[in-house]
């Protein structure tokens, strides 16, 4: 028992030290009126363009994640690649909130779409996010409802949604169009009617991906405003395994262009 207690206390001490260290980096800056943007991407292809646009002051590794601290334009930013999936995304978002005390969370990258009106390269901005793979219906809860939370959707910040739309409409994304709506997340790569049909029936999302709702969930818990900005890489159908890698570079570039334009607006 003594050994277990020691390990437990050691873990708490390490977490506290990480939180203190992260906050220390920003103590002086936090006295200013500038906000800190926490930007999360799942994959290297999604994070690389933003990292290249960033004036990096320092990096910090926490829980195996590399956090890049610095500026994009005039905005203070903490940028991180979280890895694929909702657990990775939630872990990353919580570190940003707890250790770096970010004011805003932005999740960006690529996504599939079950909406036939949306095509590859188009931008989807979240109005709300939902866990499409949360299913406690045998216990009397609705599809997507997290038990005992009395909610299904996590609402994006209205001001951030409006700012993202303005940025998308003025950024260099070619003939890509801009949509707003529900983004549905789950630990699945969606690639066929069998998967999309129940998601569309229950949530009618504009985009499906694997991280956004987890980040939205953490943002809600920490009372941090968020928005998800995704560019479409595939149609979440049988062609997705082939079209996804083909359109990934274009979609990643478009999503990063919108985020960069959004940061340049302040």
UniProtKB/TrEMBL annotation:
Pathway: Amino-acid biosynthesis; L-methionine biosynthesis via salvage pathway; S-methyl-5-thio-alpha-D-ribose 1-phosphate from S-methyl-5'-thioadenosine (hydrolase route): step 1/2. Pfam families: PNP_UDP_1. It comes from the Bacteria. Residues 36-264 form the Nucleoside phosphorylase domain. GO terms for cellular component: cytosol. Its EC number is 3.2.2.9. NCBIfam families: MTA_SAH-Nsdase, PRK05584.1. This is adenosylhomocysteine nucleosidase. The lineage of its organism: Bacteria, Bacillati, Bacillota, Clostridia, Eubacteriales.
């Amino acid at each position: 028992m003594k050994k277990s207690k020691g390990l437990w206390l050691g873990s708490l001490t390490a977490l506290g030290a990480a939180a203190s260290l992260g906050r220390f980096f920003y103590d002086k800056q936090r006295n200013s009126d500038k906000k800190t943007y926490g930007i999360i991407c799942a994959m290297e292809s999604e994070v690389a363009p933003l990292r290249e646009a960033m004036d990096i002051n320092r990096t910090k590794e926490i829980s195996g994640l590399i956090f890049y601290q610095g500026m994009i334009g005039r905005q203070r930013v903490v940028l991180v690649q979280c890895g694929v999936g909702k657990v990775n995304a939630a872990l990353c978002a919580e570190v940003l909130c707890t250790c770096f005390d970010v004011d805003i969370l932005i999740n960006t990258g690529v996504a599939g779409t079950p909406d036939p009106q949306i095509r590859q390269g188009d931008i989807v901005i979240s109005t709300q996010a939902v866990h499409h793979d949360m299913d406690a219906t045998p216990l009397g809860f609705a599809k997507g409802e997290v038990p005992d939370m009395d909610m299904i959707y996590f609402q994006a910040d209205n001001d951030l949604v409006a700012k993202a739309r303005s940025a998308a409409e003025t950024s260099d994304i070619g003939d890509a169009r801009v949509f707003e709506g529900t983004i549905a997340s789950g630990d699945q790569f969606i690639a066929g009617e069998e998967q999309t049909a129940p998601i569309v029936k229950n949530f009618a999302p504009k985009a499906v991906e694997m991280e956004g709702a987890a980040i939205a969930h953490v943002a809600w818990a920490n009372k941090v405003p968020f928005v998800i900005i995704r560019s479409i890489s595939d149609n979440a159908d049988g062609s997705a395994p082939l079209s996804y890698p083909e359109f990934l570079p274009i979609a990643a570039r478009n999503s990063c262009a919108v985020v960069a334009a959004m940061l340049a607006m302040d």
